[in-house]
Amino acid sequence: MSKPEIQVALVCGPNCDMEAQAIRSSLEYFGVRVITYWVGRPNDFISVLTGEDLYVNTDYMILSFHGTDGEFAMPELGEDIYEPGEPRGDFGPMEIRRFAQLDGKSVIANGCTLGLPETAEAFLDGGCASYIGPDDYPDGNIALMFVLRLFYEIIHNKKDIREAYRLAQSTDAEMGMYRLYER
């Protein structure tokens, strides 16, 4: 196997494992090195957002999560399970601003409403070069196909993120809810 051209961090939130497995399989078939991070508690997500657990040379980050009102759905744990200082509840712009240190990364958030401007701005404030997410509620099949088309264009057709985004978004009317934000 030749050295992969790009490396992707695939961060899987609660109840998103089927989507994450489909994305991982497809991207690996495209020749991408995919490192999967399973989020079972808020501190798992924090360790990726801060870059503490990210592998060196990660180019892209896919956040495979459910979302509501621009917030990432976090697992709800029993009070005796949370670690000292671990945040409770979902992660919105305030938590993203607090923890994100993703200098130069391109982030694709694939959950409902995770492309709202305030959420995107929080990631850009955390150093992301670009951020993509839907500003509405995509069907699961649409979310999967958007990511696959985006990376197909980046990998096989050597498109930059802007052009790959434009092509993925143009696949059908439903994909028009995806938004691209850049620094």
Low-confidence stretches: none
What is the CA-CA span between the terminal residues? 35 Å
Mean pLDDT: 96
In what order do the strands lie side by side in the largest sheet?
2-1-3-6-7-8
User: What's the CATH topology name?
Assistant: Rossmann fold
Instruction: Work out the number of β strands.
Output: 8
Q: How many strands, which pairing sense, and closed or not: the largest β-sheet?
A: 6 strands, mixed
Order of helices and strands: EHEHEEEHEHEHHE
| Percentage of β-strand residues | 15-25%
| Helix content range | 25-40%
CATH architecture: 3-Layer(aba) Sandwich
Number of domains: 1
Could you walk me through the main structural features you see in this protein, from its secondary elements to its overall organization?
34% of the residues lie in helices and 19% in strands. It is of the alpha/beta class. The mean pLDDT is 96.
Attribute tags:
two-stranded antiparallel sheet; 8 strands; 183 residues; 34% helix; single chain; six-stranded mixed sheet; alpha/beta; globular; 6 helices
Brief account:
This protein is an alpha/beta fold and 183 residues long. 34% of the residues lie in helices and 19% in strands. It starts with 6 loop residues before the first strand and ends with a strand.
Q: How do the strands and helices of this protein lay out in sequence?
A:
Layout: E1 7-12, H1 17-29, E2 33-38, H2 42-49, E3 60-64, E4 67-68, E5 71-72, H3 93-99, E6 106-109, H4 117-125, E7 130-134, H5 140-155, H6 161-169, E8 178-182
Parallel strand pairs: 1-2, 1-3, 3-6, 6-7
Antiparallel strand pairs: 4-5, 7-8
